[in-house]
From TrEMBL:
A Pfam family of this chain: YbbR
Protein's recorded name: YbbR domain-containing protein
Naturally occurring in which organism (per UniProt): Pectinatus haikarae
Length: 310
């Protein structure tokens, strides 16, 4: 058997090489390697619970090289592009896109190679509820009092959005009413400029309000005057105090109302404040006077004192 194999060994080797060359020629001619691009939907894996995750790109374009027959045997769903959020942190960050290919494919490139993510923790906080009266009651009638079922409610959402919310506001229409009435008031989350804050949820979207009307009372718009204790830490300067709302309608006996030009807030402490922020404060309402709300939000702005280098 061995002698048989050794016979014409040179010719057998030549034949083997010719056969191999012919096979390579046929494969290159009939099934050549080609390049192509496909678009793949981006997947997110290991996303943490309790966070809102935002990114701009949903589609990844990848450039590939493979035999023509390989492309014919797959579709776009066989290619994977994903970002792993296992160690993601809150805030803005850029993470790499990982690509998975079927066997026989060579990755030439992908675009984009990295994706910018904004990760926001879902939080909640309490905010004051302010009800605003609009329109007018019937002639010779005024609003004697407004009572609401809740003075504060909870807002929930991504931290950056929730931080922008200052209060929940609702509107009560006075359409020539002459009798007391109750109403369910829809609420909206608004910022310092009374603009709606999107992408947040009020855990209670309405409050109940009871409106009491009366004859012979006077109403008047007065300003709100925030009053703070003088206990701000020595290394800070108080730049400003601003109430929201900064004006309010009061109702009461004409003799009492005529003497009031503004309402003070209760005095509040600045002793633990180390940065600018907001605080909900009660109003000091004189006896015999009613208002549409008993609280206001005071915006406190402070700054660090500049050290005297001399």
């Amino acid at each position: 058997m061995i002698n048989l194999l050794k016979q014409n060994l040179f010719l057998k080797c030549i034949s083997l090489l010719l056969a191999l060359g012919l096979w390579l020629y046929v494969m290159n001619e009939q099934n050549p390697s080609i390049t192509n691009s496909v678009s793949v939907q981006l997947s997110i894996i290991n996303a943490p619970d309790g966070y809102q995750i935002h990114h701009d790109n949903d589609t990844i374009k990848i450039r590939l090289k493979a035999p023509r027959s390989a492309f014919a045997s797959v579709d776009n769903s066989d290619f994977k592009a994903y970002v792993d959020l296992t160690d993601v942190k809150e805030g803005e960050q850029t993470l790499p896109v990982h690509i998975q290919l079927p066997a026989g494919f060579e990755l030439l490139g992908s675009s984009p190679e990295n994706i910018k993510f904004v990760v926001d923790k879902i939080i909640q906080k309490q905010i004051p509820v302010d009800l605003v009266l609009s329109g007018k009651p019937a002639d010779d009638m005024v609003v004697a009092s407004t009572k609401q079922s809740a003075d504060t409610i909870v807002v929930r959402g991504p931290r950056t959005q929730v931080d922008a919310v200052r209060r929940a506001i609702g509107y009560i229409g006075l359409d020539n009413n002459k009798d007391d009435f109750t109403v369910i008031v829809p609420l909206r989350a608004v910022d310092d400029d009374n603009k709606d804050v999107s992408n947040v949820t009020l855990l209670s979207s309405t409050v109940n309000a009871s409106i009491t009307l009366a004859h012979g009372l006077t109403r008047k718009i007065v300003t709100i005057k925030p009053l703070a204790n003088s206990d701000l830490p020595a290394e800070y300067t108080l730049d400003s105090l601003k109430a929201t709302p900064d004006k309010i309608e009061i109702t009461g006996n004409p003799q009492v109302i005529s003497t009031i030009n503004y309402l003070d807030t209760e005095k509040f402490s600045l002793g633990k404040i180390t940065s600018s922020g907001d605080q909900t404060v009660n109003l000091l309402i004189p006896q015999g006077v009613t208002t549409s709300t008993n609280t206001v939000t005071v915006s406190i702005k402070i700054s660090e004192k500049k050290l005297d280098k001399n």
